[in-house]
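Troubleshooting log. The previous structure file for this entry was overwritten by mistake, so regenerating from the original sequence record. Sequence copied from the archived sheet and checked twice against the printout by T.R.
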Amino acid sequence: MKIPNVTGACIAHENKGLFFLRQNIFNLDCLHIFMPKRGRPVQSPIRQNMIELLHHLGEGYGYQLSLLYNQIFPKCTMRSIHYHLKKGLETQEFAVKRMVKEEGTYSWGAHAEKIYYGLGENAKPKMDERIKSFFEKSTPTQADTTKP
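Regenerated output below.
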């Protein structure tokens, strides 16, 4: 299907049947500037809060981060914390520091494997005051239990 060229304003794209607006002053290559981005945003407030936590701690494992997160920020499930740890590995906001196999009597068996995470190269901590005030208020016994 071909539309007649009226003052150079409309042309037909023969492969897909789509119409594109062509004007001398408007370049289609810069159309992405005016259109909103599609899909989910890459950043996440939960992941940013976890970056703040790891910036203060240095390193930590999932369960530890989940406990601290729920004491400082609005409640979040452990499943969501682990999702954001995995997503943060993909975006290189987090990095695996070490993996430790601990022996004990757990409901699932004789050992547990803890993966300690630290900040990756794309992490951008913003120095959240809530975390600073939480660790300043905490007693020495609480600080000892939160350190790995």
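The first strand starts at residue 10 and ends at 13. Archived copy saved in two places this time.
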